[in-house]
Amino acid sequence: MLRVRLFGELRERAGWGEQQVSHAYALTPSQLWQTIAAELGATPDLPARIRVAVNQQFSDANVALCNGDEVAFLPPISGG
User: Whole-prediction pTM value?
Assistant: First the structure.
């Protein structure tokens, strides 16, 4: 199982902030994004503006995920 977290506008668009996802093979955050993108009606390619964190560390979108990993997708943050 993977713990998948969405933040900001991604969370709002999806209507959820956290889900458990089972997977039968090693996949990457980029591949995981393809599934999420279909739900959001977004492009299947991970946008460059979206940051990925694996186990609370910023990560490359092509790193292999392991069972029990937490994957977070973070859009740009603005504020003042």
Answer: 0.89
